[in-house]
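FAQ: What does the model actually see?

It sees only this:
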Amino acid sequence: MERLGYRPTQADPDVWIKRASKQDGSPYYKLMLIYVDDVLHIAEDPEEDIAKLGQEYRLKDGIGPPDRYLGGNIERVQTKDGSVAWSLSCYDYLTNAVRQVEDELTQRNLTLKQFGTGLRPYPACYKPEVDTTPVLDEESTNRFQQLIGILRWAIELGRIDILQRLAACHSISPSQEKATLSLFIKYLNI
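And it is asked to produce this:
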């Protein structure tokens, strides 16, 4: 990236910045967001630097307006004042996550609806400090940790409304009781 004139930002080493000028002569910064194999380039003329990057690395999707980045959906939207902005959502990510959990539950003769609506962190009568449900086995512990990761990434992609619920359940996760795993599955039903 440095050979292309970019430097990493102080705030995030995965965000690269390069001073440039627009066609009308006004100054601005080009941005290149790179994380493992995902690249998002923000510039007036993105094809120029992407073509140079493509000379050094194989780019799988070519050049074009973005529709996905790090599992999130990206789309161009028009705001109320008529200006155009880019939007990031987690619709496809969560749809796939829910489908995976439903498939796993089906293999166990369970359904997502059996776990409730997910509107509360846990039932009002639930007291994690006196929970005596069995501790998870190794396979279920792994699945529990995957569910934490799925929900944390959903928050990163914009579902901040589930942050409090995830934090409430996550605070009781060291023992990883079966009841707590059920709570996490319930949140995928929102």
